[in-house]
């Protein structure tokens, strides 16, 4: 089962990168906010159909959730909006590596302090090195993008 979850997440990452690239290009024609709106409108329609046919939860449970948990919807929207803004400027890979580095940093802090009722996992040297290597990778990717952009402008 774990292997399938890794495979599903890998496929999710592939679709996220493709979506980032397409949305970045589309935003040049339609606008950043408009592109983000289209993504969420399409997602809402798609998920409404899924809920109708496959939903097993309680949609009205949204009304009972603590307000701080509802902030996750805003955070997801901000992530997509910032990604749509960033891809045309620094490229897909630099955008994705930046996002992953941000996820690693906040993920380590969430785990370490047990925020949001998560499992407590102490910060160790492996986690610190993972973040450090991700930041180093981001530096080299960004510098490579900058160099490529300068060479194409000559």
TrEMBL record:
GO cellular component, one term: plasma membrane
Source taxon at top rank: Bacteria
Transmembrane region(s): 36-55, 67-87, 93-116, 128-145
Signal peptide residue numbers: none
Keyword Cell inner membrane: no
One Pfam family matching this protein: DMT_YdcZ
Keyword Transmembrane helix set for record: yes
Keywords, ordered alphabetically: Membrane, Transmembrane, Transmembrane helix
Protein name, as recorded: DMT family transporter
